[in-house]
Write a structure and sequence with these properties.
Number of helices: 3
Structural class: alpha/beta
Largest sheet: 3 strands, parallel
Strand order of the largest sheet: 1-2-3
Number of strands: 3
């Protein structure tokens, strides 16, 4: 997510800024699995964001637990802890698979992010 603030992507031109304090934020961007030991931290952060707030869950881990779904320490998605307003499905790109593809597209107007389907067995 940090790369989105660089001059290549420059989300600031669209009015999107990442801030360090939840008191200065308009919402939360959840990008990873929500484990049992992160539940209280996520709730406290959510409560610290002033209303109206927006919560975005990005990727299979944040939405449903991803490959960790069903694990005793996993909460199987952020929506079991805080209300989620927007879901962006997919899996994050593995660096050893997609670093070449990303570097090929740097400098162009369009970056293609790969989203792979995810299925939970059982």
């Amino acid at each position: 997510m940090n790369v989105l603030n660089t001059v290549v992507f420059d989300l600031g031109r669209f009015g999107i800024q990442f801030v360090a304090s939840p008191r200065h934020a308009d919402g939360l961007l959840i990008t990873g699995p929500v484990t049992q030991n992160m539940v209280s931290a996520l709730r406290q952060t959510y409560e610290a964001v002033p209303s109206p707030k927006l919560v975005i869950a990005v990727g299979a881990c944040a939405i449903s637990g991803g490959p960790y779904a069903g694990h005793p320490e996993q909460r199987n998605g952020a929506d079991g802890v805080v209300p989620v307003d927007l879901y962006i499905p997919g899996l994050s790109a593995a660096s050893h698979h997609d670093s070449g593809r990303i570097s090929e597209n740097v400098g162009t107007n369009r970056i293609d992010f790969l989203a792979a389907p995810f299925e939970v067995e059982g």
